[in-house]
């Protein structure tokens, strides 16, 4: 039995997926998931440390994998937050909780008063402002969901309507473990880059272990990994050890490893509800797949040369024009929302999606759109029976 716990079996696979997809697993709220991780703790800890350089923490109240990226990406933010103010308030809430003892109870009015005193910036917080109250609602709702505050009585949603609303909270023990520990005080860091570099301060940048940790983090925490040039050390590593990487990834995870000339990624052979996948079932995702087919067609039609790394360079006007072509060709099957939207609005929404999935970006200096090769790895077209039914529908309308 002890030998089995050291091995990567189906239980370990399940536990690994949970640790990657969740910030942490609280024993009180998810005892079964916590037990899975606990049962394969040794095997998981060894694998995460060897391949990613990650620390697995298994506390008697929670389990947590500290997932530090190589570089921050848009999707890594707290999805429930919609304004930079939300993050500032959340940081202030963490500071407020530090001043409380475990199991201590406090009222919403107390934290509201304290936040006004510790919130940074000259403008401060104005609780008569609806948007400021909504920010606090989002923050405390997230704090409750993640488990760093407990609601004893009341509901924070009422604060949206009136600043005099009251809620009773309690400070759970796990609130002390939300923040990572750092080798020096956070005030001594001048930027996000400095915080990320702390991960590598004791290691040589291109030693075998460091490079392996960097590559595994890029593959598992990014939608796609691109070559930065002929001498890119990470891509040379991928090419030299591609068979070993493929064997390891497919043995220990549900993913498959794919390597192309300038692109590397991990993919799932079949859809899994636990993961956030490309494509999903949203209407804009269908448009993205159809746009990919337009990109292939227009690159050939307009004879646009590929850049050295397989990218295409477009002006924003050309990007909007291609979105317009996509609407002309496929728009009859779009949702009502997207059929009625302007091409400009659809282009903006589509670009945000492509940027989040590292399929496109804009140059800061010129504003040009760069389309990455992974965009056309999958394309979307309507099936023949859908096209036939649409033609019948159009003729009937005439």
How would you describe this structure in keywords?
three-stranded antiparallel beta sheet, mainly alpha, 398 residues, Arc Repressor Mutant, subunit A, disordered N terminus, globular
Q: Strands of the biggest beta sheet: in what spatial order?
A: 1-3-2
In CATH, the topology of the largest domain is named Arc Repressor Mutant, subunit A
Q: Mind describing the biggest β-sheet?
A: 3 strands, antiparallel
Instruction: Please tell me the CATH architecture of the largest domain by its name.
Output: Orthogonal Bundle
Report the CATH C-level class of the largest domain: Mainly Alpha
Question: Looking at the structure, what is the overall shape?
Answer: globular
Helical amount: 40-55%
Q: First CA to last CA: what distance?
A: 72 Å
* Residue windows where pLDDT falls under 50 for at least 5 positions: 1-5, 392-398
The number of E-state strands comes to: 12
Radius of gyration, whole Å: 25 Å
Domain module count: 4
If helices are DSSP runs of H or I spanning 4 or more residues, what is the number of helices?
16
Helix vs. strand class: mainly alpha
Q: What's the SSE pattern?
A: HHEHHEEHEHHEEHHEHHEEHEHHHEEH
Average predicted local confidence, pLDDT:
87
Instruction: Quote the beta fraction.
Output: 5-15%
Pfam family, one: DUF2398
């Amino acid at each position: 039995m002890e030998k089995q716990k050291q091995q990567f079996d189906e239980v370990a696979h399940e536990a690994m997926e949970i640790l990657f997809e969740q910030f942490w697993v609280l024993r009180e709220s998810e005892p079964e998931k916590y037990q899975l991780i606990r049962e394969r703790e040794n095997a998981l800890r060894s694998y995460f440390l060897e391949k990613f350089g990650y620390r697995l923490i298994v506390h008697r109240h929670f389990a947590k994998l500290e997932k530090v990226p190589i570089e921050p990406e848009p999707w890594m933010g707290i999805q429930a937050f919609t304004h930079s103010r939300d993050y500032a308030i959340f940081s202030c809430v963490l500071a407020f909780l530090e001043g409380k003892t475990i199991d201590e109870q406090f009222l919403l009015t107390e934290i509201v008063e304290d936040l006004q005193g510790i919130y940074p910036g000259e403008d401060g917080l104005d609780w008569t402002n609806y948007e400021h109250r909504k920010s606090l609602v989002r923050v405390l709702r997230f704090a409750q969901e993640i488990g760093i505050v407990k609601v004893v009585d009341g509901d924070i949603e009422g604060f949206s309507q009136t600043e005099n609303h009251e809620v009773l909270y309690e400070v759970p023990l796990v609130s002390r473990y939300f923040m990572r520990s750092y080798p020096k005080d956070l005030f001594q860091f001048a930027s996000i880059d400095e915080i990320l570099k702390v991960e590598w301060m004791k290691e040589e940048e291109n030693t075998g272990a460091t490079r392996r940790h960097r590559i595994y983090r890029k593959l598992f925490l990014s939608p796609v990994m691109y070559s930065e040039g002929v001498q890119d050390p990470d891509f040379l590593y991928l090419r030299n050890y591609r068979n070993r990487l493929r064997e390891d990834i497919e043995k220990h995870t549900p993913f498959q490893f794919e390597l192309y000339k300038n692109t590397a990624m991990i993919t799932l052979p079949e859809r899994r509800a636990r993961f956030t996948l490309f494509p999903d079932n949203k209407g804009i995702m269908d448009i993205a797949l159809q746009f990919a087919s337009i990109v292939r067609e227009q690159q050939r039609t307009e004879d646009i040369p590929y850049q050295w790394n397989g990218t295409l360079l477009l002006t924003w006007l050309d990007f909007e024009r291609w979105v317009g072509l996509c609407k002309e060709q496929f728009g009859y099957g779009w949702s009502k929302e997207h059929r009625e939207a302007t091409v400009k609005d659809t282009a903006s929404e589509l670009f945000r999606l492509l940027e989040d999935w590292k399929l496109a970006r804009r140059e800061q200096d010129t504003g040009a759109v760069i389309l990455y090769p992974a965009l056309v790895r999958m394309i979307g077209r309507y099936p023949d029976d859908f096209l036939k039914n649409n033609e019948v529908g159009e003729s009937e309308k005439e």
